[in-house]
Amino acid sequence: MLSLRGISKSFGAVAALADVDLDVGEGEVVAVVGDNGAGKSTLVKVLAGVHPPDSGTIEFEGREVRLESPTQVHALGIATVFQDLALCENLDVKANLFLGREIRPFLLDDVAMEKRSWELLRQLSAKIPTLSVPVAALSGGQRQTVAIARSLLGDPKVILLDEPTAALGVAQTAEVLNLVERLRDKGLGVVMISHNMEDVRAVADRVAVLRLGRNNGVFDARTVSTEDIIAAITGAADNVVAQRASRTADRTSQGSDPR
Protein backbone atom coordinates (compact mmCIF):
# COMPACT_ATOMS: atom_id res chain seq x y z
CA MET A 1 0.00 0.00 0.00
CA LEU A 2 2.79 2.43 0.96
CA SER A 3 6.32 1.95 -0.29
CA LEU A 4 9.40 4.14 0.22
CA ARG A 5 12.61 3.61 -1.73
CA GLY A 6 15.90 5.43 -1.23
CA ILE A 7 14.44 8.28 0.85
CA SER A 8 17.10 10.80 1.90
CA LYS A 9 16.76 14.06 3.79
CA SER A 10 19.48 16.42 4.97
CA PHE A 11 19.42 19.58 7.02
CA GLY A 12 22.52 21.48 6.03
CA ALA A 13 25.47 19.15 6.55
CA VAL A 14 23.46 16.75 8.71
CA ALA A 15 22.01 13.71 6.93
CA ALA A 16 18.88 12.83 8.90
CA LEU A 17 17.84 10.06 6.48
CA ALA A 18 20.00 8.22 3.96
CA ASP A 19 18.54 5.78 1.41
CA VAL A 20 15.73 4.61 3.70
CA ASP A 21 13.30 1.95 2.45
CA LEU A 22 9.98 1.12 4.11
CA ASP A 23 6.93 -0.93 3.11
CA VAL A 24 3.51 -0.92 4.77
CA GLY A 25 0.78 -3.29 3.64
CA GLU A 26 -2.99 -3.20 4.05
CA GLY A 27 -4.03 -4.33 7.52
CA GLU A 28 -0.43 -4.35 8.74
CA VAL A 29 1.26 -2.67 11.70
CA VAL A 30 4.89 -1.73 11.05
CA ALA A 31 6.83 -0.48 14.05
CA VAL A 32 9.72 1.87 13.34
CA VAL A 33 12.26 1.84 16.15
CA GLY A 34 15.63 3.41 16.75
CA ASP A 35 17.70 5.36 19.21
CA ASN A 36 17.44 9.14 19.63
CA GLY A 37 18.71 10.78 16.46
CA ALA A 38 18.10 7.67 14.33
CA GLY A 39 15.78 9.58 11.97
CA LYS A 40 12.36 8.39 13.19
CA SER A 41 10.87 11.87 13.64
CA THR A 42 12.23 13.02 10.29
CA LEU A 43 10.72 9.97 8.60
CA VAL A 44 7.32 10.74 10.13
CA LYS A 45 7.53 14.36 8.98
CA VAL A 46 8.46 13.27 5.46
CA LEU A 47 5.46 10.94 5.35
CA ALA A 48 3.23 13.66 6.85
CA GLY A 49 4.25 16.15 4.15
CA VAL A 50 6.06 18.47 6.57
CA HIS A 51 9.52 17.91 5.06
CA PRO A 52 9.84 16.98 1.37
CA PRO A 53 12.55 14.35 0.81
CA ASP A 54 15.71 15.37 -1.03
CA SER A 55 15.70 12.16 -3.06
CA GLY A 56 13.98 8.82 -3.38
CA THR A 57 10.53 7.67 -4.48
CA ILE A 58 7.26 7.11 -2.65
CA GLU A 59 4.47 4.87 -3.97
CA PHE A 60 0.97 4.87 -2.54
CA GLU A 61 -1.64 2.36 -3.69
CA GLY A 62 0.53 1.37 -6.63
CA ARG A 63 1.33 4.80 -8.04
CA GLU A 64 4.23 7.15 -7.44
CA VAL A 65 3.27 10.24 -5.45
CA ARG A 66 4.89 13.40 -4.11
CA LEU A 67 4.15 14.33 -0.51
CA GLU A 68 4.19 18.11 -0.70
CA SER A 69 2.10 19.35 2.23
CA PRO A 70 0.15 17.99 5.23
CA THR A 71 -3.14 18.95 3.57
CA GLN A 72 -2.25 17.15 0.34
CA VAL A 73 -1.02 14.09 2.24
CA HIS A 74 -4.22 13.87 4.28
CA ALA A 75 -6.34 14.20 1.13
CA LEU A 76 -4.26 11.42 -0.41
CA GLY A 77 -5.20 9.06 2.42
CA ILE A 78 -2.33 9.27 4.92
CA ALA A 79 -3.17 10.58 8.40
CA THR A 80 -0.72 11.45 11.17
CA VAL A 81 -1.14 11.53 14.94
CA PHE A 82 1.86 13.38 16.35
CA GLN A 83 3.17 12.77 19.85
CA ASP A 84 1.82 16.08 21.19
CA LEU A 85 -1.67 15.14 19.82
CA ALA A 86 -2.46 18.83 18.99
CA LEU A 87 -5.71 18.86 20.99
CA CYS A 88 -7.34 21.98 22.45
CA GLU A 89 -7.82 21.20 26.12
CA ASN A 90 -10.49 23.85 26.70
CA LEU A 91 -12.74 22.40 23.96
CA ASP A 92 -14.91 19.32 24.27
CA VAL A 93 -14.47 16.04 22.41
CA LYS A 94 -16.77 16.88 19.51
CA ALA A 95 -15.17 20.30 18.95
CA ASN A 96 -11.71 18.73 18.89
CA LEU A 97 -12.78 16.06 16.42
CA PHE A 98 -14.10 18.63 13.93
CA LEU A 99 -11.83 21.58 14.61
CA GLY A 100 -10.96 23.01 11.19
CA ARG A 101 -13.17 20.42 9.45
CA GLU A 102 -16.58 21.58 10.57
CA ILE A 103 -19.60 20.32 8.65
CA ARG A 104 -21.14 23.43 7.02
CA PRO A 105 -18.68 25.83 8.74
CA PHE A 106 -20.81 28.94 8.19
CA LEU A 107 -23.86 27.28 9.78
CA LEU A 108 -22.66 24.48 12.03
CA ASP A 109 -24.57 21.23 11.70
CA ASP A 110 -24.26 20.20 15.32
CA VAL A 111 -26.48 17.13 14.96
CA ALA A 112 -24.50 15.73 12.02
CA MET A 113 -21.19 16.33 13.79
CA GLU A 114 -22.41 14.60 16.94
CA LYS A 115 -23.65 11.61 14.94
CA ARG A 116 -20.36 11.32 13.07
CA SER A 117 -18.39 11.70 16.32
CA TRP A 118 -20.16 8.74 17.90
CA GLU A 119 -19.65 6.68 14.74
CA LEU A 120 -15.90 7.27 14.89
CA LEU A 121 -15.66 6.51 18.60
CA ARG A 122 -17.70 3.33 18.25
CA GLN A 123 -15.40 2.13 15.48
CA LEU A 124 -12.60 2.29 18.03
CA SER A 125 -14.72 0.94 20.92
CA ALA A 126 -13.73 4.11 22.75
CA LYS A 127 -14.36 4.45 26.47
CA ILE A 128 -15.55 8.05 26.41
CA PRO A 129 -18.92 8.54 28.16
CA THR A 130 -19.93 11.90 26.64
CA LEU A 131 -18.89 14.23 23.83
CA SER A 132 -19.40 17.31 25.98
CA VAL A 133 -16.51 16.64 28.38
CA PRO A 134 -13.50 18.97 27.95
CA VAL A 135 -10.39 17.22 26.68
CA ALA A 136 -8.52 18.52 29.75
CA ALA A 137 -10.65 16.18 31.89
CA LEU A 138 -9.74 13.05 29.90
CA SER A 139 -7.04 10.50 30.70
CA GLY A 140 -3.96 10.12 28.51
CA GLY A 141 -5.43 7.06 26.81
CA GLN A 142 -8.72 8.84 26.13
CA ARG A 143 -6.89 11.82 24.64
CA GLN A 144 -4.99 9.49 22.34
CA THR A 145 -8.34 7.96 21.37
CA VAL A 146 -9.73 11.38 20.44
CA ALA A 147 -6.63 12.17 18.36
CA ILE A 148 -6.84 8.83 16.52
CA ALA A 149 -10.59 9.23 15.96
CA ARG A 150 -9.97 12.69 14.49
CA SER A 151 -7.42 11.21 12.08
CA LEU A 152 -10.11 8.83 10.77
CA LEU A 153 -12.37 11.66 9.60
CA GLY A 154 -10.95 11.62 6.10
CA ASP A 155 -11.17 7.80 5.77
CA PRO A 156 -7.39 7.35 5.46
CA LYS A 157 -5.71 4.18 4.24
CA VAL A 158 -2.54 4.62 6.32
CA ILE A 159 -2.14 6.11 9.80
CA LEU A 160 1.16 7.26 11.30
CA LEU A 161 1.33 7.10 15.10
CA ASP A 162 4.26 8.95 16.68
CA GLU A 163 5.03 7.48 20.12
CA PRO A 164 1.36 6.72 20.88
CA THR A 165 2.05 5.21 24.33
CA ALA A 166 4.66 7.72 25.56
CA ALA A 167 4.09 8.82 29.18
CA LEU A 168 1.02 6.59 29.60
CA GLY A 169 0.33 4.25 32.50
CA VAL A 170 -0.14 0.50 32.15
CA ALA A 171 -3.95 0.59 31.75
CA GLN A 172 -3.84 3.54 29.34
CA THR A 173 -1.11 1.88 27.28
CA ALA A 174 -3.23 -1.28 26.96
CA GLU A 175 -6.16 0.88 25.83
CA VAL A 176 -4.07 2.53 23.09
CA LEU A 177 -2.60 -0.78 21.91
CA ASN A 178 -6.14 -2.12 21.59
CA LEU A 179 -6.89 0.88 19.37
CA VAL A 180 -3.91 0.03 17.16
CA GLU A 181 -5.22 -3.53 16.75
CA ARG A 182 -8.66 -2.20 15.80
CA LEU A 183 -7.09 0.02 13.13
CA ARG A 184 -5.37 -3.07 11.70
CA ASP A 185 -8.64 -5.02 11.84
CA LYS A 186 -10.26 -2.24 9.79
CA GLY A 187 -7.69 -2.92 7.06
CA LEU A 188 -5.60 0.19 7.61
CA GLY A 189 -1.85 0.25 7.31
CA VAL A 190 -0.28 1.54 10.54
CA VAL A 191 3.21 2.96 11.03
CA MET A 192 3.97 3.12 14.75
CA ILE A 193 7.02 4.96 16.04
CA SER A 194 7.97 3.63 19.46
CA HIS A 195 10.78 3.24 21.99
CA ASN A 196 8.90 0.61 23.98
CA MET A 197 9.89 -2.90 22.93
CA GLU A 198 7.02 -4.52 24.83
CA ASP A 199 4.48 -2.38 22.96
CA VAL A 200 6.20 -3.15 19.66
CA ARG A 201 6.16 -6.90 20.28
CA ALA A 202 2.51 -6.72 21.41
CA VAL A 203 0.96 -5.24 18.25
CA ALA A 204 3.48 -5.00 15.41
CA ASP A 205 3.64 -7.41 12.47
CA ARG A 206 7.07 -6.21 11.36
CA VAL A 207 9.77 -4.11 13.02
CA ALA A 208 11.91 -1.74 10.95
CA VAL A 209 15.06 -0.50 12.67
CA LEU A 210 16.69 2.82 11.88
CA ARG A 211 20.24 3.54 12.95
CA LEU A 212 22.01 6.83 12.21
CA GLY A 213 19.45 7.66 9.53
CA ARG A 214 19.76 4.34 7.69
CA ASN A 215 17.92 1.03 7.58
CA ASN A 216 19.49 -1.47 9.94
CA GLY A 217 17.16 -4.43 9.56
CA VAL A 218 13.50 -5.42 9.15
CA PHE A 219 12.27 -8.21 11.42
CA ASP A 220 9.19 -10.39 11.83
CA ALA A 221 7.78 -9.25 15.19
CA ARG A 222 6.45 -12.75 15.92
CA THR A 223 9.83 -14.44 15.79
CA VAL A 224 12.49 -11.80 16.51
CA SER A 225 13.89 -11.52 20.01
CA THR A 226 14.10 -8.28 21.94
CA GLU A 227 17.87 -8.79 22.07
CA ASP A 228 18.08 -8.85 18.27
CA ILE A 229 16.09 -5.62 17.99
CA ILE A 230 18.20 -3.86 20.61
CA ALA A 231 21.39 -5.05 18.93
CA ALA A 232 20.19 -3.59 15.63
CA ILE A 233 19.21 -0.32 17.32
CA THR A 234 22.54 0.13 19.09
CA GLY A 235 24.79 -1.52 16.53
CA ALA A 236 26.26 -3.57 19.38
CA ALA A 237 27.99 -6.85 18.66
CA ASP A 238 28.24 -7.63 22.37
CA ASN A 239 24.94 -9.44 22.73
CA VAL A 240 23.85 -13.03 23.27
CA VAL A 241 23.05 -13.71 19.62
CA ALA A 242 26.33 -12.35 18.32
CA GLN A 243 28.31 -14.21 20.98
CA ARG A 244 26.59 -17.50 20.17
CA ALA A 245 27.22 -17.02 16.44
CA SER A 246 30.86 -16.26 17.17
CA ARG A 247 31.27 -19.42 19.28
CA THR A 248 29.66 -21.51 16.54
CA ALA A 249 31.98 -20.04 13.95
CA ASP A 250 35.01 -20.72 16.16
CA ARG A 251 34.00 -24.37 16.66
CA THR A 252 33.46 -24.80 12.91
CA SER A 253 36.85 -23.27 12.18
CA GLN A 254 38.60 -25.50 14.73
CA GLY A 255 36.84 -28.58 13.38
CA SER A 256 38.10 -27.91 9.86
CA ASP A 257 41.70 -27.29 10.97
CA PRO A 258 43.79 -30.00 9.19
CA ARG A 259 46.22 -30.18 12.11
From TrEMBL:
Annotated ranges, domain ABC transporter: 2-237
Gene3D superfamilies: P-loop containing nucleotide triphosphate hydrolases
GO molecular function, one term: ATP hydrolysis activity
Keywords tagged on the record: ATP-binding, Nucleotide-binding
InterPro entries, per database record: AAA+_ATPase, ABC_carbohydrate_import_ATPase, ABC_transporter-like_ATP-bd, P-loop_NTPase
Protein name listed in UniProt: Monosaccharide ABC transporter ATP-binding protein (CUT2 family)
Organism per entry: Glycomyces artemisiae
Source lineage: Bacteria, Bacillati, Actinomycetota, Actinomycetes, Glycomycetales
